[in-house]
Write a structure and sequence with these properties.
This protein is of the alpha/beta class. It contains ten helices and 21 strands. The chain folds into three domains: 11-111 and 241-337, ANL, N-terminal domain (Rossmann fold, 3-Layer(aba) Sandwich); 124-238, 3-Layer(aba) Sandwich (Rossmann fold), CATH 3.40.50.980; 339-432, ANL, C-terminal domain (GMP Synthetase, Chain A, domain 3, 2-Layer Sandwich), CATH 3.30.300. The strands form five sheets. An eight-stranded antiparallel beta sheet has the order 8-9-10-15-14-13-11-12, with helices on one face. A five-stranded parallel beta sheet has the order 4-3-5-6-7, sandwiched between helices. Strands 20-19-18-21 form a four-stranded mixed beta sheet, with helices on one face. The relative contact order is 0.11. The chain binds zinc ion. Zinc ion (ZN) binds next to strand 10.
């Protein structure tokens, strides 16, 4: 079945019949899958006739999929379709473990592009725009699959990929490109090259006015957005939130507000579940939980109650000022990075913001957990600015300020600048000094 036209403008309850109809077809696909038969080995696989019964079924997680692909390469036995029906294969980098092979049929690819197109359209991309797509086209979904999502908006899409920044600058100038799809960190690299090789051009004079981004938490920081606007005259939009095993892009903000619209209500079921537990949280404004996703129309590698590991907060389920009925949410953090201190949840991203807001600190920090939970206070190591030395007054001021901002007790260690180990690439800021 194709996507329901305009589904993102419909309130979720008005799509219920649509979803049930898709579930009838999806049930058949799941019932024929060796993986789901085994996954339900404790009891015979009984897929409910109506979607409301789905909460009785077991969850699936990344580890289940990983193990299954290792045993049944290359697609895993959760392929649930003939290998001949696969028309596109993506691969994850495997930097944090085994690479995953992600299979799409022609139907799956079309549906994925349409959902991604909804997110990019909501963020303000349309037929009047020319957008250059600057994500890596090698293997992963961010390349060609995101590209096809951009095309769904009717915009003219220029496939650029990564590298060749000087050529990119010439291309933007010569084609009159007004929009860029890239990572949030890319514009600063672009500005550097501009200064070095084209000192006669101000970033603003390049004519980029819209930036379509996703994937990095800093994107929602108002200071980041303000800086980008100041330098480039360009508005940054969080238009690309996805889970590669599920759909590469199924949520994005609109031009009216900053929360993410869930764009896949006609083809997917989203649930909220208490992290580490099985309790389902009601889908209503203010609810918070781990996002659990089920494909309602997927031929290859369908997922059933897939635990994404992303903790989200639903912010609204009514109609948005932009006219869309799709529910809105915010991503709070990863459930495996959540630290509970006397009932208060803390995430490295939130701690980072609090540390960055302290004028005496240089922004470097580690959360070092010496023992398993529970925690009375948050064990936090921070570095002072380079010309400062730790002393008792400074210690108390900073400890108090962090405790007030984070609203929890902080066991602070104040360090001179340069004490914490610097690594190339992504720094691990949450360190567990105990065997799990
Ligand atoms: Zn909206």
């Amino acid at each position: 079945m194709p996507c329901t036209p305009g589904a993102e403008f419909t309130l979720p309850q008005d799509l219920a019949a649509q979803r049930e109809a898709r579930w009838q077809i999806q049930r058949e696909r799941l019932a024929a899958s060796a993986f789901y038969q085994r996954h339900h080995r404790d009891a015979p696989l009984r897929l409910p006739a109506a979607l409301e019964g789905i909460a009785e079924l077991p969850f699936t997680d990344k580890e289940d999929l990983r193990k299954d692909q290792a045993r049944h390469p290359p697609f895993g036995s959760y392929l649930a379709a003939s290998p001949e029906s696969v028309t596109r294969l993506h691969r994850t980098s495997g930097t944090t473990g085994q690479a995953m092979n992600l299979a799409l049929s022609a139907h799956d690819a079309k549906l994925q592009a349409e959902i991604a197109g909804r997110a990019q359209s909501a963020a303000g991309l349309g037929p009047e725009d020319t957008v250059v797509h600057c994500l890596n086209y090698q293997l992963w979904m961010g390349g060609v699959t995101d590209h096809l999502g951009l095309e769904e908006t009717g915009a003219m899409v220029v496939p650029f990929g990564t590298g060749g920044t000087e050529l990119l600058i010439r291309t933007i100038r010569e084609l009159g490109i007004n929009a860029i799809s890239c990572t949030p960190s890319y514009p600063s690299r672009l500005a550097e090259v501009l200064r070095e090789h084209f000192p006669e051009f101000e970033p603003k004079s390049l004519g980029l006015r819209k930036a379509f981004m996703g994937g990095e938490p800093g994107l929602d920081d108002p200071a980041f957005r303000a800086r980008l606007y100041e330098t480039w005259g360009m508005r940054a939009m969080n238009s690309n939130y996805g889970v590669s095993d599920f759909l590469c892009n199924f949520a994005g903000q609109c031009t009216e507000q900053n929360d993410l619209h869930f764009m896949a209500t006609d083809v997917a079921l989203a649930e909220l579940v208490v992290p580490g537990e099985e309790t389902v949280v009601p889908w209503e404004a203010g609810s918070q939980g781990e996002l659990v996703l089920t494909h309602l129309d997927r031929e290859c590698q369908p997922l059933l109650r897939f635990r994404t590991g992303d903790l989200i907060q639903l912010t609204a389920t009514d109609r948005c000022a932009c006219g869309r009925g799709a529910s809105r949410f915010r991503v709070i953090g990863r459930t495996d990075e959540m630290i509970v201190v006397r009932g208060v949840n803390a995430f490295p991203s939130v701690v980072a913001a609090a540390v960055n807001a302290c004028p005496e600190l240089n922004g470097e920090y580690r959360i070092r957990l010496a023992h398993p939970p529970p925690y009375d206070r948050l064990p936090l190591e921070v570095e002072l600015l380079h010309d400062q030395a730790p002393n008792d007054d400074l210690y108390e001021t900073i400890r108090q300020r962090l405790a007030d901002t984070l609203r929890l007790g902080v066991a602070l260690t104040l360090l001179p600048s340069g004490t914490l180990e610097r690594t190339e690439g992504k720094t691990r800021r949450l360190i567990k000094d105990y065997r799990q």
